[in-house]
Inverse folding.
């Protein structure tokens, strides 16, 4: 049980980050209802672990719990996440078409959303944490439990894929 | 810096993750290299597009309400059983005071706390099997499992592999008892999973181990070199004892 002031402390510290928690869960699950389930379960886990939490960065801590909850949810449903191994070499590296800046700037929301949803899970995770939550490589490394070098290579490859996707869509639209 | 070297750093440069020396050499290179400069512009354009694209999802009000309700329920649920337990303890203690005196009370309270802990440990074992969440780090290599705990605990649990003796280490996970994170190491004996919970304690070494059975699960407990150990499984007591003996060696 938490004492009254600890309980209030938990609510004050954790509840303001529910939007960030939901955003991550929604991008990982790609589904409204699943995202709500994951956040609900993650919040209860956070509540359970609250007494043992001594860090300062509550948002990162909650996001790490959301991520872990998501992965146990995946295992529980024995859904295979589409993982790409970090060691795997992208055969697309040298074949990057040259996108127009204007194209990237004007990529409309739906196009970007589709491009992000197409990304393999761990690339999507890195992009969401970096571009939407503005987290540092170190923070992402802690949340995703990977070395900083892996964060960098995931972001690099994720962005390359996004550029290719957007360029291809644009090419189809204009042809 | 050469062009390929710089290309590898462009993402980190755009993300502001290079130190000042690194940024400076990238900037020097950008003044001379159009290809890298174009790449930087593309990366910036992409980042801006995602950032300003309205792609962030907001938690629905319904979810916020549900979370608050669930947490309130979890807190009061726990608190009522806690107070229930406190009440029982107080009442029983009063009776014991009359009969046995202070020494007896101290002993009784301690064993009652230990009884609760045993319940917690058995429930945690059952939960880990039911929720299919037995390991956070899956590895039979103790050199992988040990560092995994490194950033998560303020102590380093021993991670002995007993594969040769028929109890392979399959991984580890974090668990929580009494409000503190605790290492759970997972061993396997044929089809049976064995959870080993380890945390530091100031208990004296007790070569004399305790063993008991709860809800059909066998539990073995001992203390050694500043750590307290709880081994729990549905494995038969003889084999579980063998496992405990090997762990203590």
């Amino acid at each position: 049980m938490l004492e009254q002031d600890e309980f209030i402390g938990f609510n004050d510290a954790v509840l303001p980050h529910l939007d960030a928690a939901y955003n991550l869960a929604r991008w990982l699950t790609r589904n409204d209802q699943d995202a709500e389930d994951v956040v609900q379960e993650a919040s209860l886990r956070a509540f359970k672990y609250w007494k043992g939490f001594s860090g300062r960065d509550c948002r990162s801590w909650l996001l790490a719990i959301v991520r872990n909850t998501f992965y146990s949810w995946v295992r529980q449903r024995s859904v295979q996440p589409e993982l790409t191994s970090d060691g795997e070499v992208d055969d697309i590296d040298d074949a990057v078409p040259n996108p127009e800046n204007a194209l990237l700037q004007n990529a409309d929301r739906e196009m970007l959303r589709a491009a992000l949803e197409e990304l393999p899970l761990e690339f999507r995770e890195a992009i969401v944490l970096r571009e939407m939550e503005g987290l540092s490589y170190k923070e992402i490394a802690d949340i995703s439990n990977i070395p900083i070098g892996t964060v960098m290579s995931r972001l690099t490859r994720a962005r390359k894929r996004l550029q290719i996707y957007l360029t291809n869509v644009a090419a189809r639209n204009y042809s | 810096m050469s062009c390929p070297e710089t290309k590898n750093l462009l993402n980190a440069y755009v993300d502001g993750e290079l130190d000042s020396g690194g940024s400076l050499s990238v900037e020097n290179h950008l003044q001379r290299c159009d290809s890298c400069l174009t790449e930087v512009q593309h990366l910036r354009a992409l980042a801006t597009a995602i950032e300003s694209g309205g792609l962030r999802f907001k938690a629905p009000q319904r979810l916020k309400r549900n979370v608050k309700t669930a947490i309130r329920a979890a807190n009061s649920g726990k608190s009522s059983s806690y107070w229930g337990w406190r009440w029982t303890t107080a009442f029983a203690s009063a009776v014991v005071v009359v009969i046995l005196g202070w020494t007896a009370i101290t002993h009784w309270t301690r064993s009652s706390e230990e009884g609760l802990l045993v319940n917690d440990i058995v429930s945690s074992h059952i939960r880990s099997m039911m929720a299919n969440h037995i390991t956070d780090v899956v590895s039979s290599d103790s050199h992988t499992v040990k560092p995994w705990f490194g950033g998560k605990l303020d102590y380093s649990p021993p991670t002995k592999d007993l594969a040769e003796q028929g109890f392979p280490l399959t991984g580890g996970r974090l668990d929580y008892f009494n409000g503190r994170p605790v290492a759970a190491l997972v061993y396997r004996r044929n089809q049976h999973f064995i959870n080993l919970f380890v945390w530091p304690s100031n208990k004296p070494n007790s070569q004399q181990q305790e063993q008991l059975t709860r809800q059909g699960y066998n539990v073995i407990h001992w203390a050694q070199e500043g750590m307290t150990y709880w081994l729990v499984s549905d494995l038969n007591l003889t084999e579980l004892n063998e496992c405990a003996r090997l762990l203590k060696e």
Notes: The CA atoms of residues 73 and 169 of chain B lie 37 Å apart.
